[in-house]
Design a protein that fits this description.
This protein is an all-alpha fold and about 210 residues long. The chain has a domain of about 140 residues: Tetracycline Repressor, domain 2, CATH 1.10.357.10. The protein contains 10 helices and no strands. About 25% of the residues are buried.
Length: about 210
């Protein structure tokens, strides 16, 4: 019979992933060694290999775990009681809160997954698509006319564009933290969503002029 996992095994794995994500985000996956990860975790290299077989396993686990959390957020928010707007507000708030503590993981997800093998990269991308689809469904409930115009997904991607890159300009000691930003993002998106029109029906703004 194999040995059981010791108490705190999962916590240690999580701590290792967090340290590896920080290194991958700051200096890149290719430039990071297992020795550096072990040193950042305060572990021997032999102990590190007890948790993860190699650097590739770390990269995949960082990306997969992060996307799995996003999937869970989307699922749980969809099951909350309330109106369609309430559900979308919850969804956006939870997303912003998650990114507040996962900036390194998000950077790895957006910039370093290119180093994954095709099958593993496809798994991550499929999970990301499921998260986007969950948001797009919420948008389509609020504006079914935009769904008919195939705009739910593009609008969802605009929302992710707002949230995904907040960490590039938000200061850790700034006046606004992620908790304060969440309702601002939500109000901006929902307010703008109500104003969106099918571009096919927009009035022409550029008139032809004679040469």
């Amino acid at each position: 019979m194999g040995r059981g996992r010791h108490a705190g095994y999962d916590d240690q794995r999580g701590a290792i992933l967090a340290s590896a994500a920080r290194l991958f985000a700051t200096q890149g996956y290719s430039a990071t060694s297992m020795n550096q990860v072990a040193e950042a975790c305060g572990l021997s290299k032999a102990t590190l290999y007890h948790y993860y077989r190699d650097k590739y396993a770390l990269l995949f686990s960082i990306a997969d775990t992060h996307v799995e959390r996003l999937q869970r957020i989307a699922m749980e928010a969809g099951e909350t009681p309330g109106t369609a707007e309430d559900k979308l507000r919850t969804l956006i708030a939870r997303l912003v809160e998650e990114y507040a503590d996962a900036q390194d993981e998000h950077w790895v997800l957006t910039s370093e997954v290119r180093f994954l093998e095709a099958a593993d990269r496809r798994r991550i991308l499929d999970r990301e698509r499921e998260v986007v689809a969950a948001f797009a469904r919420s948008v389509s409930v609020l504006r079914p006319d935009l769904d008919e115009a195939a705009l739910s997904k593009p609008l969802t991607m605009l929302l992710f564009g707002m949230v995904n890159w907040m960490f590039t300009w938000m200061k850790p000691d700034g006046a606004l933290d992620h908790g304060a930003m969440a309702p601002l993002v939500t109000d901006l998106f929902l307010g703008g969503l109500q104003a969106v029109r099918d571009p096919r029906h927009h009035p022409t703004t550029i008139k032809e002029t004679s040469p």
